[in-house]
Amino acid sequence: MDAVTYPEQKVVDYIMDHLLPVRIPFNHERYSKEYSIEWTPTLIVLDSDGKEATRSTGFLSPDELIAFLHLAIGRANFAAGNFEPAIKAFDYVAEQFPKSAFAPEAIYYRGVARYKHTKDAKPLREVYDRLSVDYPEDQWTKKSYPYRLIA
Amino acid sequence: MGTTISWETDVEKAIARAKTEKRVVLLDFFNPG
Predict the structure, then answer these.
(1) Given B3, B22, B25, which is nearest A19 (Cβ)?
(2) C-alpha closest to that of A107 among A130, A81, A83
(3) Which residues have C-beta within 8 Å of that of residue A60, sequence separation ≥ 6?
(4) In terms of CB atoms within 10 Å, which end of chain A has fewer, N or C?
């Protein structure tokens, strides 16, 4: 991450514009245990109340990191019930980073957030339709399988 | 020459700022070598 991803200017700009970044040695006496750190790099995104929204372990390229972080912002808003900003964040990941490993998860949660926001089940069906075509082997496609039954 | 990421080292301070500024916190657990 230090050699490839963090020096990229777009990564610097993204992180400084959107997050409060904190670095912690993996063997920190308190936080390693508190956050159950098993390997490095481990990235954890906390919502504005300090609760964990999501995490990733292992190297991420610059685009993958930005996609992950934006997905995490969406997940933090989703968990807080802020569905409109969550949908906007998921939409950004899905449409701007379609080749990212995080795009299918963004599409999945975008549909779920739309459903929770509107109580209309149609977006869940759209999740399956989109994922089954664009990411047929992805785990999020398999998780959306029951939604194919929604009319 | 571009800028670099300004990493904080104080988790509690970052969480307090996050509450005030309604932002999210990125924790990077790294191997200092």
Answers:
(1) B25
(2) A130
(3) A1, A5, A43, A68
(4) C
Q: What single-letter DSSP state applies at residue B31?
A: -
Contact by Cβ (8 Å): B18, A48: yes
* pTM of the predicted protein model: 0.94
Q: State both tokens at A41.
A: 């790099």
**Rg of chain A over CA atoms, in angstroms?**
16
Q: Look at chain B and count its residues.
A: 33
| Nearest CA-CA partner of B30 in A71, A33, A37, A13 | A37
> In angstroms, what separates the C-alpha of B31 from chain A's closest C-alpha?
6
Residue range A9-149, CATH number: 1.25.40.10
Residue type, B5: I
- The number of helices, as runs of H, and strands, as runs of E, in chain A is 7, 3
Quote the pLDDT of residue B1: 54
ipTM for this model: 0.94
- Residue B4: is it exposed, middle or buried by C-beta count within 10 angstroms (0-12/13-18/19+)? exposed
